[in-house]
Every structure is written in C-alpha cells, then in structure tokens.
Prior knowledge:
alpha/beta
Amino acid sequence: MRIFIIKANHAHTKADFSLKDLPGTSGRIDLLCRSINSAFLLSHGFRKNVRVWLNLNGPPNPPKTIRFEGSEIRPKTINPDERSIAKLIIKALKAGERIRDPGKEHQVLPGIYISNLTFEDIIRKTLKTAKLYYLHEEGKPIAEVNFKGNIAFVLGDHVGLSDEDEAFLENIAEKISIGRKRYLTSHVIAYVNIFLDNLGI
C-alpha cells in the first residue's frame, strides 16, 4: 500500500469557505484537492492501493483529519475537478462537527472518514504498519531507496512542515527527495506514484 500524509497548516476546519474562491477563502484546500487527484486518479482508472490522510490545521477548530481509503471508495466518487473534490471535503467537515471522541473516525461516505486526529496521531498509527518517508528537497535521492512493503510519505503544504514537525519526524522517518527544487505537493505525489509504478511496486 502507498500512503500519503499531508499536513495543511492553514486549511479551514469548518465548511465556511467559497467553492468559487478556494485559494482565497479556504486556507488552500485547492492544494489538497489537487493532491487527492494526483494520489488516486489515472486516465480511465483509479488507484485502489492508496490511502491519503489530509490533516487540516486552520481555523476555527483544528485539527480535523480526513482519510481517503482507495480500497473502499466507490467508482466515480472522486472526479478530477477541484470543485467536486472540495465538495467531498465540505461534506466531511460538516460531518466532523458532530464528533466528540477525539480518537474516533466517523465514516462520511464509503472510504472517506473524518476525525480529530492530530498530525502526530496519524504518524504513530501509520508507523504500526508502514515504513515512513519524509519528502524534502534535501533528502536522499528517491532512486537510491529500496522500497518494499507498505510505504508512507509525509508532505507539507505550500508552507511546509514546522521545525517542531521535523523534529518529531527526525528519528522515525527517512528523509528522501525527488529533486533539489521545491515542487508543488500534488506534483510530488504524481511523481512518486509514477516512480513506484515503474518499479512495479
């Protein structure tokens, strides 16, 4: 399984933003929509072996975490346009307003779950079943990594991870890189998927 964990520093944790202006009103949920697109969608196909965690930390009630489970998502639930994916996030955030137990996930649709899990919670859960990699331009070249089993990739948004986040990951995630430039999160995910496809993983 391929797992992508994205920490979104300013993404709104309430459905109080406009679909007509996602970049300007949502704390860059448009970035998360593009990342979901890159993680799951193929031309006339859908990746079932992918899990995505979106960890939202913006106003007004952080954190909120949305999990997309490729093996459970029904056909045509995820469409390629940002607006459709944003509607799924809105649906999840509205469902998340009813959550009282911080550690419990609530199913929104088949394969889509909302919770109050923190970034650290997600990392700890993932470490139980997968090898963890932190994607960063200063990391070890991805071509030199021997991937096997379940693999998880941690990414930041347009802001990146904080010093505290990086300190938390230091001894539990191997830092790897797809190149020395800073790329868009969605482009990094697409590259990693294509790279692993070519390895037959």
